[in-house]
Amino acid sequence: MLTLTSPVETRYHRLPAGPKLAMLAGFTFSLFWLKTPLPLACAALTVLALHLPGGPRFILHALRMLRPLWLFVLVVFIWHLWTGEYRSGTALILRMVTAVAAANLVTMTTRLSDMLAVFERLCAPLAPLIPPQRLALAFAMVIRFIPRLGEVLERIRDAWAARSPRRPGWRVLLPAILAALDDADQSAEALRARGGAE
């Protein structure tokens, strides 16, 4: 199982997963009440300040985790530049980057097993309908395959660039989907070989 926990130890690693996830939920919810760029910029600076105790390696790792977001930031920026809605575009970008950076901070400082334990406790009321362990396993698989899909896309783009001077564009989608389905099939076979999710 892939872990996104940072190898750089910080004081946040020692905090329990439940309170961290609760604070993240409250902080993310509050971002949607902020409508103008100035308070959102203050929230972004707050998240940045929370990264500083981890040191340069921790901050660089956090920036690398934000890399998949920059394409969305660029699309939103170009759209709002074209429509002339600079204020709302800036607010949207700040809200998006701040929320993802805060979520990454929690992910980097919390073991996946601890997050799954919290998720199982939250899903306990659904036990008569579906076992919480299965929901937790599905949650873990989503966390596992999101960065995996990013890696596959990057490899496909590199392979395209080595063979053609043109931009790949939409052409990488089909190979990426097939690779994701292949990974899912292999994971299902591995789970079945181990007896599945009890």
From TrEMBL:
Which spans are transmembrane here?
32-53, 65-82, 88-106
Regarding the membrane, this protein is recorded as: Multi-pass membrane protein
What keywords are annotated for this sequence in UniProt? Membrane, Transmembrane, Transmembrane helix
Question: Where does it live in the cell?
Answer: Membrane
InterPro entries in the cross-refs: ABC/ECF_trnsptr_transmembrane
Family (UniProt): Belongs to the CbiQ family.
Q: What is this protein called?
A: Energy-coupling factor transporter transmembrane protein EcfT
